[in-house]
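[agent] plan:
  1. take the single chain provided in the ticket
  2. run structure prediction with default settings
  3. attach structure tokens to the ticket
  4. add a short note for the reviewer (M.T.)
[agent] executing step 1
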Amino acid sequence: QVQLVESGGGSVQPGGSLRLSCAASGSIFRLSTMGWYRQAPGKERELVASVTWTSDTIYVDSVKGRFTISRDNANKKVYLQMSSLKPEDTAVYYCTLRWPTVNYWGQGTQVTVSS
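[agent] step 2 finished; step 3 output follows
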């Protein structure tokens, strides 16, 4: 069974940085696509970034150049380094694991960007 546990959320001022971490359990991590989604109040959930098992990455346009996704297969972790944070980045961030066609979700971690 797959379990995903996020950490690293919090409150930060505009221009600041945060690093989200996600620890996964289960044996399928190495071959899976890992991702981070976010959902702001009153908005739909959106894909922020994803990384395949071959380390190919994609990012939503609004975070390109500011966020970096990475994975550590040995320790079954995925990270989202967020820099130059903006108020519009405020949301609950969810870690996801996809393999082969099933999406697994973490419980979410709140990120608040405010002065």
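[agent] step 4 note for reviewer: The radius of gyration is 13 Å.
[agent] ticket updated
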